[in-house]
Amino acid sequence: MGEASESGKEQNEVVDVEVITLGKRFKVSDVPISMLGRDLRRMICARLPGKSGAHVVVQHGSSPLSLNQSLVQQGIVEGCVSLSCVYLPVNIAAAWRFLKGYQVDEEEFSLHGVTQLEGIQSGDQLMRLPNTLKRLAFADGFADNLDLDILPSSLQSLTLPDEFDQSLDHVNLPIGLRNLTFGQLFNHRIDHLTLPSSLQNLTFGWKFNQSLDHVEFPVALQRLCLRGDFNQSMDQVKLPGSLLSLHFSPMFNHSMDRVNLPTGLQSLTFGTRFNQSLEPEHLPSSLQNLTLGGRFDETLDQLRLPASLQSLTFGAEFNHPIESKLPRLQSLNFGDAFDQHLELGNLPSSLKSLSFGDEFNQPLDPGVLPNSLQHLAFGKEFNQPMERVNLPSELQSLVFGDRFNQAVSKVQWPSGLKTLTFGSRFNQQLSQLPQGLQSLTFGNMFNRRLDQIQLPDSLETLILGTLHNIVMERVALPTGLRHLSFGHGFTRKLDGVKLPQGLQSLSFGALFVHLGTVNLPNDLQVLSLDADCSEILCRGIPLPNLKRLNLAFPWFTGDLSAWDARDLSNRFADPSTRTPL
């Protein structure tokens, strides 16, 4: 009877708690002494500002407040008691263990201070999210029902799981949310969802195909992305004036005649099936980037482009002559079907980047490429002579497609060219290269001697294709070379080859088994092997600076004990994924 009376007394007795932190004080009044330390700590943390990377530790005297004992069990029994709080760095290992269901001393408080969580697997993990959390993303396969009302108000970015397909009527999203991404299966109306006024980016998944007529978009929205199945009329949709980017799905194919695009819109992307006429009044004068869908096949006479446009991308089926004057574009990308002859003056003098699709195979007349051009990429079918082509003096990057196999010995390479890439069929002799070249890539068919080419001292990357299998002893590799890759057909020994001491990355193909003949430089950081070099690896190779070893042969079963353990930490890769173990 006495014990019961004493227990009832504890239930009724309260204390006032004075909390001291960072030189400031506040009081938590009428705290039952029967309360667990865990619950008091929650009350205190709710009153304190969250700090990224730090969590609150509550001290009672010289000891931390125990989570699993009542206040009376910890000697807090009457009057007014003082507790001190300090911020300590987050223990990431403890936070990870708690999320995985392991027992940790700090329990859910181990998450406090964490700002980003990805790969959430169950609804239980959502119950104690910290008020410092800014970014939350779910793992593939998440199937639990979601209570979005419990998300912390600090959240700024939310990516919902692909399986999420719940109604959002009257759901309260965090007021500070800036980025919201729906998963693949979500397909509910959002008319009755109040989107946070702070929302800047909104992305829907592949199954979403609901009317947006009565949706009230936030005034701060800057980017709207509609993917997959969306194919609803936009005539009655009130897009916010703040919108800068609008991306339509591959299925969208509605008239734009009555759509009010915001006057400040800068980027507009249509999907694969879009093939509607675009009148001049449809495109805002502020538009900078326009991507037309794969089936769009209107002539440029019908499409009057705004003068502000900087980037224009045509879809796969566009194949009309460039007869109208293009605005002062900086980037122009043609689709796969385009195969029209370009006349002098067709391309704007401001153009910096030009790419052609697979079917383009027209000769380029002298002067047709503007001097301002910095990046030029040809498609799969292009196979025209280049010796009479005036490559612009500003050109920095040149990419040829798979079928290109023309002589280039007399080509006048621009002195500023930094990247040169040849396609699969190229197998012509090179005599000279620009002195400033930094990256040179050959395709699968190339099998020419490299000792007859003066590789520039500036070269940092050299990639050889599948069939290249010529001795390398007389090749003068530049001292500044950082990345060297041999193709699958290379089988030559390299005992007489001097690899640059500054080489950082070296790759061998599936038939190379002579690793023991290679004098590997000490500075090597990445070594990739597609063939079985088990015997050599097991003997050990002294590479003090190696950071990653890619083994692409799944049958390796050797003993690597001969390697210095310091050289193996996080340096092996799984053969199927080539990601560090």
Automatic annotation (TrEMBL):
Extract the InterPro entries matched here. FNIP (IPR008615), LRR_dom_sf (IPR032675), STK_FNIP-Repeat (IPR051251)
Q: Which domain of life is it from?
A: Eukaryota
SUPFAM superfamilies to which the protein is assigned, alphabetical: L domain-like
Write down what this protein is called: Uncharacterized protein
Species source reads Cladocopium goreaui
